[in-house]
Design goal:
The chain is an alpha/beta fold. Helix content is 35%, strand content 22%. It comes from Amycolatopsis rubida.
Amino acid sequence: MSPAAGGKRDPYDYPRDWEADVVLSDGGTVHLRPVVPSDADGLVALHGRLSDRTRYFRYFGAYPRIPPRDLERFSTVDHHDRVAFVALLGDDVVAVGRYERLDQGPSAEVAFVVDDKHQGRGLGSILLEHLAAAASECGLRRFVAEVLSENAAMVRVFRDAGYQVSRAIEEGVLHLEFDIDPTEESLAVARSREQAAEARSVHNLLHPGTVAVIGASADPTKVGHVAFANLLAADFAGAVYPVNPEHRSVRGVRAYPSVLDIPDPVDLALVAVPAEAVEAVLDACLAKGVKTLVIVSGGFAESGPLGLHAELRLVGEARAHGMRVVGPNALGVLNTAKDVRLNATLAPRLPKRGRTGFFCQSGALGTAILADAGSRGLGLSTFVSAGNRADVSGNDLLQYWETDPDTDLVLLYLESFGNPRKFARLARRLARSKPIVAVKSGRHAVRPQLAATSAEVDEASVQALFEQAGVVRVESLAQLFDTALVFAHQPLPAGPRIGIVGNSSAIGLLAADTARAEGLRLAFDPVDIGPQAGPDEFATAVREALDSPDTDALIAVFAPPVAIPGAAYARALREAVSEMKQSKPIVSTFLAAEGVPHELAVLSDDGVPTRGSIPSYSSPERAVNALARVVRYAAWRQRPQGTLVRPSGLHVEQAQEIVRELVPEDGSSTLLSDDDVVRLLSCYGVDVVPFRVAASESKAVAAAAELGYPVTLKAVDERLRGRPDFAGVRLDLVSEESVRVAYRDLCAVSGDEDVYVQQMAPKGLSCAIGLQDDPSFGTLVSFGLSGLVSTLLGDRAYRAVPLTDVDAATLIREPRTSPLLTGYRGDEPADLAALQDMVLRVAALAEDNPEVRSLTLDPILASPDGAFVANARLVVGAPPTRPDTGPRRLRHITPVDS
């Protein structure tokens, strides 16, 4: 919804998408929305709480009370030329930011005031971001501010925002001016603050000093009993308080009738009461000031519409009062750190301590996952099972793990993405320093709101999209753990050259065949020491293979001989590798074990397999497949990352005005007219070859003369133009008579008197660039050659927005038919730079205008002289509910999310 262009407006009628829940620098939350007249009492109360110093800084004087005339002006705005946001914590207004347009021009004066109690939490920078976004939407381009020179905190808000700020000082007052269009620096500042704030909110969740178990029960069959017992069994480092109104104690620990009766502050409340009682529990927790809620209770969104409604109301209330929520229907959270030892889950045992973080969306699978991790010898740092993922999501955990010193590896079990664009952005950044391995289930399901704009993406392309973000995608939990063991215990390989050593030629050949199928290179033929060789001979062969400069990684395949126990060979392998202190990864097939058997383990002080331990697999195929995923990830890390590129000559503001004009008021999707498509594409420097629509033979002749011969005639009906016999197109027409004949032929074929008359583009290979939605990655840019063969083979490459220059370059070279563009069989190469530039322009269009739901440029004629768009189709509609654009905000919760 866009505000009206000036004029009178109902002061209650503000754009609803301006509302937002935001995370502050200390990990707490507030609710942000435009001010309305009924906020007057809240503004007066805020003013009454301000210190004399804060009032002086804001109003340049004492200003002890707000006069009625000023109060009306502060609380009644038009949401266009005069805009104000209030930050709400519960029912209290804790901060206000506002701007007022100057002289009906493109500049506005901006100012803020923050409750003294909440200063230093980042509210000023949050308000500035949201005000700047609203101002841009209302046609403003510049902010000015008058700040007392001694008001260092407010000066810092403007100085550190990443804008180019000009300063002038007169009589102790700083005059600041800056353009509000986002810059690379301002975006980087916002993303850095987002990461720090969301990471802090998760840190608060995983490092509580006190935990209340609401619904703690003395009945061993009750969930509340299990949750409380698990906290005690883990020897939690903080204080645990059972809440049970019917018992004085639970398991010998004094119980409290309500969380409000607990004498100390409560950091984390673990809620294990029936769904119908959770609302009352929430009210008590809000009154107590609990920071985080972990709800293991079911009966919410997963149970139907009524449960969904209760869940949305629950999360909205919690966020508005500064609280984050895990769940509902969650298994819980845990932290194995020595100084925490938190098991706030329904799983019976705290896992062994390790350096792997695990996010699981499924509560039902959580217990099995934790048990499997333990049996495989994989220690965990932290674990979060988010259940319905009503608030805290996998993206929050990615933010936390990026800077968590106790986590080196991230594992994800995902059923859906709350904000796919943000996931791709965060994953790409995190994966540069820490591997991410993900199981993505339900990948063939498409959300209803994407059905009209989502096309099926083949599995190879899905894999490429994950690899673009640096995510190692696996098909099952078994593969997840297979791969995690290599990452957790072994170094990354320098390349794809694999050595194979074993005592069975058959197993060695099986490993070699699998390696070739996975795209690995054999450094040498598999080494077979024979079934009679002893442990020392085996260790010697391993040392020689690792010493070889041709080897980047090693696979030890082993079939236990009858005479000597396999454990002796395993110990010899571990000792040989340990003595060499080498940096090449090793996987093995020992003892039919899945994980790290004791004989291959290097143990930490508390008896957990750690770096240097050698993973073992029950088959050589699984060993090779796990290693191959690690090799591909290492290659991704070594490749140039590229830089996000914005081509020159983009007219973003003009494009956004066009889009707002064309999106139907009801948000439905609509196919744009040819003229509107041309208008919008031209804002991004994508020109369509000139054309006219002719409704008669004489008009077709006139259009051809106007455009200049040669011309092309096309039927308006695209289904005809796509026929194998090209019955809907007449090419290279060079005379008036040929146009007349072609016009009559096309009308006869199509039954329509309208035809396209188009200037003939330079001859070239027909290519296609497209935009479409994907439930895993948001907006995708696609590229491939046009034609039935490419379509039937699915020969199209995909990349997720935003694109780097490396992404664009590899995209146009990835289809199997792409050699045709580079001079295959001696033809003159097409202008690949022009295609790459066009890809980047299309990506910029998608990034700036989430209302663009799909786009097809087909055909694009790629020639040595450039790339020429001969036809374009574009659909606009309401933007996705969770774009990764604009000022910082928490994911908006809608029924679709669940």
